[in-house]
Design brief:
The complex is a heterodimer of chains A (417) and B (244).
Chain A lengths: L2 H13 L8 H14 L15 H5 L3 E2 L21 E6 L2 E2 L10 E4 L1 H7 L11 H9 L1 E8 L9 E6 L6 E3 L1 E7 L4 E9 L5 E11 L4 E8 L5 E11 L4 E8 L4 E10 L5 E10 L4 E10 L5 E10 L4 E10 L6 E11 L5 E10 L4 E10 L3 H9 L4 H17 L5 H15 L1
Parallel strand pairs in A: 1-7, 2-6, 5-8, 6-9, 7-10, 8-10, 9-11, 10-12, 11-13, 12-14, 13-15, 14-16, 15-17, 16-18, 17-19, 18-20, 19-21
Antiparallel strand pairs in A: 2-3, 4-5
Helix pairs in contact in A: 2-5, 6-7, 7-8
Chain B lengths: L1 E10 L2 E11 L4 E5 L6 H9 L4 E10 L2 E2 L5 H7 L1 E4 L6 E5 H15 L7 H14 L10 E2 L5 H15 L3 E5 L7 H14 L5 E5 L13 E6 L2 E6 L2 H9 L5
Parallel strand pairs in B: 3-10, 3-11, 6-9, 9-10
Antiparallel strand pairs in B: 1-2, 1-4, 4-5, 7-8, 11-12
Helix pairs in contact in B: 2-3, 5-6
The chains are: A alpha/beta (417), B alpha/beta (244).
């Protein structure tokens, strides 16, 4: 998609009455910055292994009223027990089938903006952040007040369907005030024939709060998926992130976590499963801006066929951030000679009293293990499935909410088999 | 039950087995001894069907079927079992899950009904007592973080769960303390009967103190160069292999 196309679409968006004019200034500002910077190229350090040319060739239109569903979408295929769901279809909020659990306040983007006195939290870390701010739609803002334990997890289900070539720029703000707990799930599904999905998620976790965040990316095989996640954590907060992805033609996740309070802790767990010519890409930056902070990254990929993957993991420890613990691990399983993984774990440490480790391994299935299984009567194909499951299982194992863990396990097993 | 005739095998182009002849009948316990590099482990792996070992000449028959082109999982189904010298650790795969998959795969091959979870658990608890391991053992990942003795006992646990006709034990006694050695030896002894045969590959005769082998074979330079009764093991222990 060329810049001109984006300019046309942006003008179209400004002309549509249903986009609140209060947000126009921040949109315009972001768009002009995007115009100045343009798309990342492979000369940019963190985009070296990420080829965006396919994305640029396509032409995407903003999602309009005609792209809303004709009738209430059927979500029975995505049923998970004991949670509440907010449904967004091609960027359109589906009020009839959406609900939030007790303790969660749901606001639209413009309501949230008003609450924040037009000071919307927005990042300029990547051109796709700017693009999201310029085009943001399907705004979902969840606020959990002080000392509130939200017992029921909330899921935002994004369904993208249909034959028109559209772009959706979901914008989520999740604010957890002090002493609270939320389990929140983003799930991306659908059969869209041509889609550019560019979501931005901003999460603020105040003092002594905990967020369990699960992200499931199973977009259609023609989707170009860009995810921009920004997490800010304060004192004594805990953030557990689990990402399962097996969808999309191209997917890139930009994950930024700032540990801004002592004793804050984040656990990032990502699993990418790819086949065909899929490209799944994780770019993670964890900033230890405070002493006594703790982070871990466990990122695994399984690659079949001619699929490709990228892991850029960066852990930055600022000068005064002493006594921190940071671990980073990237493990990749290549199941074909043509599959390719680029792994780039990095530690950037400016403090001197820290405990950090990082490691990366990329390899094939262990022949000895395969033979061991066969020698016990387990047929080779079954042994293969067991071993691949064994490789991936660790990543999602610690999810606390059982129904979602089972849901992901099922997806995972179907994928592997 | 097992007939090996003039078996030649190579690995990565290097010939290791140079004409092995061996015949094992139901109920028999054969011991294969020999110096390092003689081809003992190669023989075990060739019998179990490891594909990096290539059979270049000769015959192997098990219960009347040629083994040369048989898949390893089918050999297990037919009733062959190899206890590995170095059992591989498999993080992420639960020992019980693995055992259940193995037991049911073999049952399926033999035309028996697969065991449901409850029946399986009951069965495996009985077997755990034989190898003197507690329940927690089967909930750990396969061989991951197991001590040497635990790994070997896990092999025996698999053996008695899979009920083979022929068990080949490749240095199952190496690196075991005296207790583990006793447990492993008893596991084998209790399991011997008129229909089941064993091939024990070992360096040492100390495990033989616990059992009654029918034949001792000396494998050297890819061939069985001497066979004899149990006393041969004592002689080898005292004199080494140079006198042969």
């Amino acid at each position: 998609m060329s810049l001109t196309n984006f300019q046309n679409e942006f003008q179209k968006l400004l002309d549509r009455k249903y986009f609140s004019p209060e947000l126009h200034p921040v949109r315009k500002d972001a768009f002009s910055k995007f115009e100045a910077i343009g798309f990342p190229t492979q000369k940019w350090e963190n985009w070296r292994f990420t080829n965006l040319s396919a994305l640029k060739e396509n032409h995407y239109l903003i999602s309009e009223v005609k792209d809303a569903p004709q009738k209430t979408p059927d979500i029975s295929n995505y049923k998970i027990e004991d949670l509440q769901t907010i449904v967004i279809y091609n960027g359109h909020f589906q009020q009839d089938i959406s609900s939030v659990p007790e303790g969660v306040q749901l606001l639209t983007g413009s309501e949230y903006n008003e609450l924040k006195n037009n000071q919307l939290n927005h990042s300029e870390k990547s051109p796709f952040d700017l693009l999201n701010t310029a085009f943001m739609d399907s705004g979902v803002c969840l606020i959990v007040g002080k000392n509130t334990i939200v017992g029921t997890p909330v899921r935002i289900l994004f369904i993208s369907d249909g034959d028109s070539s559209i772009m959706v720029n979901p914008r989520l703000h999740i604010d957890i005030e002090s002493g609270s707990l939320l389990t929140f799930i983003e799930e991306y599904v659908g059969n869209a024939t041509s889609l550019f999905q560019n979501e931005a998620v901003y999460i603020t976790i105040e003092k002594n709060s905990e967020v369990e965040h699960i992200r499931i990316q199973s977009s259609s095989e023609n989707t170009h998926h860009m995810a921009n996640l920004h997490v800010e954590q304060f004192e004594d907060s805990q953030y557990n992130f689990y990402q399962y992805e097996d969808g999309g033609k191209f997917s890139r996740n930009n994950i930024y976590v700032d540990l801004n309070g002592e004793n804050s802790e984040c656990r990032i767990n990502c699993l990418s499963l790819s086949r065909g010519t899929q490209h799944l890409d994780n770019n993670i930056v964890v900033n230890h801006n405070c002493p006594h902070t703790d982070s871990s990254q466990i990122v695994k990929s399984v690659l079949f066929d001619k699929s490709t993957g990228v892991f850029n993991g960066r852990t930055v420890v600022q000068k005064d951030a002493q006594k921190i613990v940071a671990h980073q691990s990237n493990k990749n399983l290549l199941l074909s000679k043509s599959a390719k993984m680029n792994s780039n774990p990095q530690l950037e440490i400016y403090a001197d009293d820290v405990k950090c480790s990082h490691g990366s391994t990329t390899g094939q299935l262990d022949d000895d293990a395969l033979f061991y299984f066969q020698s016990r009567g387990i047929p080779k194909n079954e042994a293969f499935v067991l071993l691949v499951s064994g490789f991936v299982i660790e990543v999602m194992e610690k999810i606390k909410f059982e129904p979602i863990k089972n849901y992901i396990d099922k997806k995972m097993n179907t994928w592997i088999a | 039950m097992l007939k090996i005739k003039n078996l030649h095998a190579q690995v990565e182009g290097k010939e290791i087995l140079k004409g092995v002849n061996l015949s094992v009948k139901p109920g028999e316990l054969h011991v294969i001894m020999g110096p390092n590099g003689a081809g003992k482990s190669t023989l075990a792996n060739v019998l179990a069907g490891r594909d990096k070992f290539e059979v270049t000449q000769g015959k192997m028959e098990f219960s009347g079927n040629s083994l040369v082109d048989m898949l390893p999982e089918n050999r297990a189904g037919e009733g062959m079992f190899l206890s590995f010298q170095y059992p591989v650790a498999i993080p992420g795969v639960n020992n019980m899950y693995f055992l259940k998959a193995a037991v049911n795969a073999v049952r399926k091959y033999r035309g028996d009904d697969e065991l449901d979870a409850v029946t399986f658990l009951k069965m495996i608890r009985e077997k755990l007592k034989v190898v003197e391991l507690d329940d927690s053992f089967i909930h750990r990942p396969v061989n991951e973080g197991f001590s040497g003795g635990e790994k070997k006992r896990n092999e025996i646990l698999q053996m008695i769960s899979l009920e083979p006709k022929l068990a080949i034990l490749d240095e199952t006694d190496s690196g075991l303390d005296i207790d583990a050695l006793r447990i492993v030896a008893e596991g084998i002894n209790n399991y011997r009967n008129n229909d089941r045969a064993f091939i024990l590959i070992t360096h040492y005769q100390r495990m033989l103190n616990y059992m009654k082998p029918d034949f001792i074979h000396v494998l050297m330079n890819g061939k069985i160069v001497k066979s004899g009764p149990k006393e041969l093991a004592h002689e080898l222990e005292e004199k080494g292999y140079s006198w042969i």
